[in-house]
Structure prediction request, 327 residues.
Amino acid sequence: MSTRSIIHQELSCPRWDPTSNNAERKKSMTTATKIAVIGLGAMGYGMAKSCLRAGHEVWGADISPNPVERFRADGGQPGDIQDVAKTLDIVVVSVLNADQTSAVLFGPDGVACSMKKGSVVIACATVAPDFAREMASRCNERGLHYLDAPISGGAAKSAKGQLSIMAAGSDEAFEVASPALDAMAEIVFRLGDVGAGSAMKAVNQLLAGVHIAVMAEAMTFGMTQGVSPEKFLEVIPQCAGTSWMLENRGPHIAAGDYTPLSQVNIWPKDLGIVLDIARDAKFSAPLTAAALQQFLAAAGMGLGGEDDAAVAKVYARNASLNLPGEE
Ligand SMILES: NC(=O)C1=CN([C@@H]2O[C@H](COP(=O)(O)OP(=O)(O)OC[C@H]3O[C@@H](n4cnc5c(N)ncnc54)[C@H](O)[C@@H]3O)[C@@H](O)[C@H]2O)C=CC1
Ligand SMILES: O=C(O)C(=O)[C@@H](O)CO
Prediction:
């Protein structure tokens, strides 16, 4: 039995067919759906491009004009989302956090008030489960479907339409959302009622945040023992201590390139969500708390806008090490 079918069984709820060929499914789609992607950052831009590649009519919006212009030059639809909101089938929200999600949907120019009944909001920012439930209930009151749909895989997988989406919502929400989900994801988990997607994402973030911090700890510890970042990355990915985050973020440190694909600032937010809901559950999460302190230290050093691999600079500073690019 493959790993994927094991996951499917353990979840014991229907999910996108994991055995079907994603590329074939994407190619075989013929009907254009009207989709807006709000938030064209590290993740949203790739999601919007994936929807375009699948043949849909796609509008892109961001508070920053640059990615909007770039997206139009790449084939995105011209014009403001507000002007077309009532014609949209799907609105994908890929902003940073809960406040931005709430502003995009229900702020002064909130798109939820203009969307047609029966259309769907696919909410992808990492937020707390209670917030997802609140947004869903406000959307449902307006006759809109809501998918609690946090994402995983980083900017590279987003660009390729190969995200993992931890989704939760009604069958109708999944049905209406399917053209965008098919375009953006390699795998879509159907996890139950709204809130269950964000709960699973919190579990992923606990691991992902700890793994990034501990990768930085191990790499800089290795440097004190004469193990260069290059040698670390040659050997450890072939050994039991590796992780997806080590292999994804470690090369950023070795190259001294902290262009933000996932900002340091994401982690006080995400590990904060984990620790908030852990506290409510009276669950002690000491490793998460330790990792959070390292990301807070990085943010305190003024590195909040850098790639999260810059957490290595906290360790390097404490150990008087020069990381690649700092000599
Ligand atoms: N970067 C990553 O590797 C991953 C990020 N995530 C999560 O996905 C979400 C998006 O992350 P990123 O793309 O990295 O963030 P980002 O900061 O790169 O992009 C967010 C975008 O939203 C825009 N924005 C903010 N408020 C807006 C508004 N009112 N209207 C229109 N646009 C607005 C910003 O200008 C920015 O371009 C976050 O919740 C993050 O935690 C999840 C998985 C991976
Ligand atoms: O891909 C994910 O999952 C992540 O949350 C990270 O890349 C953090 O931004």
Q: What stands out?
A: The first helix runs from residue 3 to 11. Residues 252 and 319 are 20 Å apart (CA to CA).
